[in-house]
Here is the input.
Amino acid sequence: MTESNIDTESVIGSLNKILETELAGVVRYTHYSFMVFGYGRIPIVSWMRGQATESLNHATEAGELVTHLGGHPSLGIGPLLETHRHDIGDILKESLEHEQLALSEYRNLLELVNGKNVMLEEYARRMISLEEMHLGEVRKMLRKPGE
Here is the structure.
């Protein structure tokens, strides 16, 4: 299957939304890591900074795919919401919302390329799987022990 089987403009637009969303994740998780205090700070900060690094890697991959298709990567960044609530539970809930947005963007990409471009389809499926796993981890962290 070739790239000519896809609506290249729409696919590039979707990839640019993914790029912007993932870049917002870099900023969010880095900011969140600064705002963690208390006994559990060290492992939580480490996890958040790992998420920021993962988001940067995802943004890089999306940007590379944009240029692979002949497009121009966006310089934009997805929405950044500062609630000024820095309780770990509140941060995780904001993270959950952000990750659901990213998952939605990857699913949109899959719809655009499904059955038309194996490389992009496999990319979208891999990213959907990663995002779903991440959402599951965040949901587990939001559960109270014994639930």
About this structure: The first helix runs from residue 8 to 34.
